[in-house]
Design goal:
single chain, 113 residues, alpha/beta, Transcription Regulator spoIIAA, 5-stranded mixed beta sheet, two-stranded parallel ribbon, 4 helices, 42% helix, globular, STAS_dom_sf, anti-sigma factor antagonist activity, STAS_dom
Length: 113
């Protein structure tokens, strides 16, 4: 996982790993929570590398969303693969998260808020 600060001080691009499964979720959750708690309340979560995500991986996304909302922030999902997008839609999370396919558009949106 990689954190890249964006033009806005409290915005960050988070590139997620190939797998978001139960064995990795405690570490992922802790890292994202730390990033939010230290001031990044606007996140673009880049899912383009994620090949597999299970329910615990989805729970990391939802937990991060709830935490950013408490801090008047926002989360955008960027470029989920077809399989990951299908799971997001199956669980109806596409009604909760904004999903962008274009990186530039996602970054512009999160930085103008």
């Amino acid at each position: 996982m990689k954190f890249s600060p964006l033009a806005l001080n409290n915005a960050c691009l988070v590139t997620l790993p190939k797998e978001m499964v139960i064995t990795q979720t405690p570490t992922l959750r802790a890292a994202i929570t730390h990033q939010i708690e230290t001031g990044s309340n606007k996140l673009v979560l880049d899912l383009h590398q994620v090949e597999f995500i299970d329910s615990s991986g989805l729970s990391v996304l939802v937990s991060a969303l709830k935490l950013t909302q408490k801090k008047a922030g926002e989360i955008i999902l960027l470029s989920p693969s077809a399989g990951v997008r299908a799971l997001i839609e199956l669980t109806r999370l596409h009604h909760v998260f904004a999903i962008y396919e274009d990186r530039t558009a996602a970054i512009e949106h999160i930085c103008e808020q």
